[in-house]
Design brief:
With 203 residues, the protein is of the alpha+beta class. Helix content is 39%, strand content 24%. Helix 1 runs antiparallel to helix 3.
């Protein structure tokens, strides 16, 4: 049986409103913070409230997303704790043994650990009198057969930056990243070498 024009329009509006409610709930879940999502993040609370009000107008029952939010918070808390444990773990801190030597490089201090983009990295910083391009060439020359290699040469307001990434075929050996930068009037190049550690087990 064919629907009348009015019935079809009503059905379309209902479906559109249902999609709106679904999108609001999805957005609320996507932007949930690490802890106490609804209380700590007013944006999430507003999204949930808007979804509830929209559902009431449509005589719809809003799904209870609190268990999902709680589960997300628990997972994020576990990840945060695992990263903190890895960051503060005892033992030597060093770049992979295969990391190419950097000519005329003076380290600013010993290697350290730091969380970057939700992952613990080994970091070594320092300087070199060589230009970013020369340092990049040195690392490029050190790559071996089968090694994954990436290079980026950038210049912004005459500040030169070269970024090199090296990754052996064996993923277990990790990867290293060189970032060498020199401003126009500087006589030295600032160097940062990083290597991400494997993601920790959260169990």
């Amino acid at each position: 049986m064919l629907e009348s024009g009015g019935a079809m329009a009503h059905s379309f509006i209902m479906k559109s409103n249902f999609v709106s409610v679904t999108l609001l709930l999805s957005a609320a879940l996507s932007f949930a913070p690490v802890t106490r999502a609804q209380e700590a993040n007013p944006d999430v609370a507003k999204m949930l409230k808007d979804a509830e009000e929209q559902a009431k107008k449509m005589n719809m029952k809003v799904p209870d997303v609190k268990p999902q939010l709680a589960e997300m918070e628990q997972d994020q808390a576990k990840e945060k704790a695992a990263l903190k444990k890895q960051l503060e773990a005892p033992g030597p801190i060093a770049l992979p043994a295969w990391t190419p030597k950097l000519p005329q490089f003076t380290a600013a201090g010993p290697a350290t650990r730091k969380i970057i983009d939700d992952q613990v990295h080994i970091i070594v910083t320092g300087t070199s009198p060589l230009t970013p391009a020369e340092l990049g060439d040195a690392w490029e020359a050190a790559k071996t057969e089968g090694m994954s290699f990436g290079r980026s040469n950038n210049s912004i307001n005459d500040t030169k930056t070269v970024i090199i990434t090296l990754r052996p075929q064996d993923a277990a050996q990790g990867e290293v990243r060189l970032e060498a930068t020199r401003a126009p009037k500087e006589k030295i190049t600032h160097v940062t070498i990083t290597s991400p550690l494997p993601k920790p087990n959260m169990d």
